[in-house]
Design brief:
Elements: H1 35-44, H2 50-64, H3 83-88, H4 91-96
Helix pairs in contact: 1-2
Length: about 100
């Protein structure tokens, strides 16, 4: 009975690299290409592999979707997270309510 050594079909399978077949998205001839334009070209290329298109969506997201603005009250003051709790739980407010 043989022990150890290599056996046919054993071991880690070799992965197929999809980028060898795909030559990249068609790009405009202009010299000023922004990162957003590049990632959008990758996203719109139907021949691009899924993994690369998913990475392009991840990279283009910050350029396309703005962060929400901070919430403001009626007077235009920023409402910071926890600001309402700070006023309710402050030592001065606790003393007024007899919580000390």
């Amino acid at each position: 009975m043989a022990r150890g050594g290599s056996r046919p079909g054993s071991g880690r399978k070799k992965t197929r690299v999809a980028t060898k077949e795909w030559k990249g998205p068609p790009l405009p001839e202009s010299g000023s290409l922004t990162p957003l334009e590049f990632w959008k070209a990758v996203l719109r290329d139907p021949l691009a592999p899924y993994e690369i298109r998913a990475q392009a969506a991840k990279e283009a997201g910050p350029y396309m979707h703005a962060r929400p603005a901070p919430k403001r009250d009626d007077e235009g003051q920023d409402l910071l997270p926890g600001s309402e709790w700070d006023t309710l739980l402050s030592p001065a407010a606790a003393g007024k309510k007899g919580l000390h």
